[in-house]
Amino acid sequence: MKRIGLDVGSTTIKCVVTDESGNILFSDYKRHLSKISEMTFELLNTICEKIPDSEMIISVSGSAGMGMAEDLSIPFIQEVYATKTAVSRLLPDTDTVIELGGEDAKILFLSGGLEVRMNGTCAGGTGAFIDQMASLMNVTPTKLNELSKQHEKVYTIASRCGVFAKSDIQPLINQGARKEDIAASIFYAVVNQTIAGLAQGREIKGNILYLGGPLTFMSGLREAFDDVLKCKGLCPENSLYFVAMGAAMSPSGKPFNVRELAETTAVYSSSGGYKSCPPLFSSKEDYDAFKKRHNHDSDNIGYIDKPAGEMYLGIDAGSTTVKAVLCDKNGNILKSSYSSNNGNSVPIVKAFLEEMYAEYPDINIVSSAVTGYGEDIIRNAFHIDNGVVETIAHYTAAEKFRKDVDFIIDIGGQDIKCFKIRNGAIDNIFLNEACSSGCGSFLQTFAAALGYSIADFSKEGLFADRPVDLGSRCTVFMNSSVKQAQKDGASVEDISAGLSISIVKNAVYKVIRAASADDLGKHIVVQGGTFHNDAVLRAFEQELGRDVTRPTIAGIMGAFGAALAVRDLHLERSSLLSPDALQSFTHSAKPVTCNLCTNHCSLTVNSFDGGRKFISGNRCSRPLGKERVENPDLMHYKYKKLRALQG
């Protein structure tokens, strides 16, 4: 009797059909987008069409397959056992198996007795991590692999989770590091995480087998493993299907009528349940009243359609986006822009300036300012007059909309900034330190994983009946919670609303650590692109039990505040690059290792037209052409000081 092996992983579903001799008659590999029952139905239906046998022996394996297997009474094979079964049968000389999946990572040591090492609470170094990093760089995982093969150097990047990796990668992007070098660095980070986190000192040697989607599809990742391990691992044919083949080979399989099982799967939903939150909006009328109220939040902001004398430019080069605002001395907005930085802020700003000069050739820019992650490189590239601290920029903008503002919260792509205001000055600041689970990129990552754009995904949750209660957990744990909720019958709408609520809970209870709404303030202004999401805004108001102010320009408040702040410099003329200078503007970046001292800093040398240079990555002043500064010998100073006190 023919056998079917299903491997339902964290992000994909794999299927094989074998004959009595173990030869593969059919195989398929799909991303299930968390629609496990629908995808299983499609696969079983396809098998019925291609293979006429009505009955086959079926087994299920994989991290996301247990619930379905239990509910449908299909034998479940633990995936480590399934992998070992397939490897022992097909490649018996294997000493070590390295398997990377969507969120799972495993090392199986087979020689000298079976020993298994698996990731527990962290998805760093897995396919999901690689997907997140590719998304951060605005390339596909396939393109990331191609870029890695053209690298010239490797940067040190943490891979324990996407949050820390972003903290390392984002400055490299904003400082102009080559995408090829960053791509290779991501793969080496995965290697280091796998070896350090899983092997934990045990030597990986002998015949090494590479399994799983990331190692199958990404030759650059395999090359990084080979380079670090100083060996040549094997990625066999059908490497994607070893767990599914192991399940099919298991003697505990059970005969099923495939067509009847497919029909059962089509209408299957989990027998479990999940903890839910109250809906965000009870009716369409409730939502309309909410929208109408917030449309009045920006009644005091003005717009003009042509330059009005002296004009001011503000730029916010953020972690994932670039914002720009052009306004007059009264704060009336002439032109604004909100764009993804695509891994490099320089061409985005250049395009905005060119468009500005084309539309308003006689414009009088009196002063300009830049704030955000990419402040240094943008200021150097385009001769921006001044840099503004982000907190000052956001407070200056918020005060324009509400003079009595006493608390500001800004949720950006990967950071949260909160400011308490007292007597017209910033009294306290709260920042997310090592977690981005309450930020825009957190929501964007889940939207992409479920096959939605961020705009469409946000709208899905507005009228959800039972939003999933996900708490205020980190991204890794949240992945597991979302998948469990899906297995328990949660819809995409429920998940979208639940994630929006979790963003708010993370900000309030993990970043601000508020005990009550009164800890924040009575006159709250919310900023950042994430608050354009009505579900997030509604969840924030529900959690605090009070109304807040959301300007219509919430996403560009940093740039607007920078323009208003620089207005007070009282310059006569800005040093901003002219239209003629922009035409000849060029930008290139080159990685360099400094050898002027023992630090051996990994520098990024950005070159602009006219021979101008901006160097980043230095830990001392020598690469900048300045004289070497000898730091005091603190141990010698301490010794002399203590001896003097004794005397």
Secondary structure: elements and pairs:
Elements (H helix, E strand, L loop, with lengths): L2 E6 L3 E7 L5 E8 L4 H15 L4 E7 L4 H6 L7 H12 L5 E5 L4 E5 L5 E4 L8 H10 L4 H8 L13 H13 L4 H21 L8 E4 L1 H5 L1 H11 L12 H8 L4 E4 H9 L17 H12 L14 E8 L3 E8 L4 E8 L4 H15 L4 E8 L3 H8 L3 E2 L2 H12 L5 E5 L4 E7 L2 E7 L8 H10 L4 H7 L14 H13 L4 H20 L12 E4 L6 H11 L12 H10 L12 H5 L3 E7 L8 E7 L4 E4 L17 H13 L1
Parallel strand pairs: 1-4, 5-8, 10-13, 13-14, 15-18
Antiparallel strand pairs: 1-2, 2-3, 4-9, 5-6, 6-7, 10-11, 11-12, 15-16, 16-17, 19-20, 20-21
Helix pairs in contact: 1-11, 3-10, 4-6, 5-7, 7-9, 13-14, 15-21, 17-19, 19-20
Task: Offer a concise description of the structure.
The protein is an alpha+beta fold. The mean pLDDT is 87.
Explained architecture:
The protein has 647 residues and is α+β, with helices and mostly antiparallel strands. Helix content is 39%, strand content 19%. The strands form five sheets. The protein has a five-stranded mixed sheet with strand order 3-2-1-4-9. It is globular. The N and C termini lie far apart (93 Å).
